[in-house]
Amino acid sequence: MEFPSKLIENAVGELARLPGIGRKTALRLALHLLKAEMDTTASLAEALAKMRFEITYCRTCHSISDAEECGICANKLRDHSLVCVVSDVRDVIAIENTGQYKGVYHVLGGVISPIEGVGPSDLHIDSLVARAAEEESEVREVILAISPTMEGDTTAFYLSRRLRDLPHVHISTIARGIPMGGELEYADEITLGRSIVDRLRQK
Q1: Dihedral sign (CA 114, 120, 122, 125)
Q2: Predicted local distance difference test score (pLDDT) of residue 200
Q3: Domain co-membership, 90 together with 35
Q4: How many separate domains does the chain show?
Q5: What is the mean pLDDT of residues 161-185?
Q6: What is the arrangement of strands in the sheet containing 200-201, beginning at the earlier edge strand?
Q7: CA separation (Å) from 6 to 2, 3, 17, 34?
Q8: How do 170-173 and 200-201 pair as beta strands?
Q9: If you write DSSP's letter for every residue of 91-102 in order, what string do you get?
Q10: Which stretches does the record call C4-type zinc fingers (predicted)?
Q11: Of 66, 93, 107, 148, which sits with the fewest C-beta atoms within 10 Å of its C-beta?
């Protein structure tokens, strides 16, 4: 693809690095930004820079946050006895969009995958166990809401073994309204919501 400007070529190259963005789409975006008001392009650049450099992670659940504690963990109206364990922040967003879950979350930051070199120590598993096991813990149920893939099932099995010796904590999994091999973020809101409501107790 030939470009009339090296600056456009560089912009297209950077935009095309984004997932799901090919070079043709990247070119359309670059040309749109070129035609837009200067303030529009500047605002976009500023928002992206602030997102990258200022966003932090919640000290409790490891979800993305603007402060040390995210809005969900800080919300006293949420049910803090109910912890939904997910692999990724996108899963938190998907479940929140159902409007059917009122507990809190714990974001692992991935799933166990030996092929990709991801082991239990690479995930936020120890902090989950500590959170549930501490003497004054409010946690009474842990919902394993992990995508039902081979890696997801391996992770859920490992978590069940780590948590099973805590007598005050029930372990449940979301109902299999989510198809095997499916990803939570792509499930429709009704199916995902019902999976949370109809979760299965494991202990």
Answers
A1: positive
A2: 57
A3: no
A4: 2
A5: 80
A6: 103-107, 79-86, 141-144, 170-173, 200-201
A7: 10, 7, 17, 14
A8: antiparallel
A9: HHHHHHTTT---
A10: 58-73
A11: 66
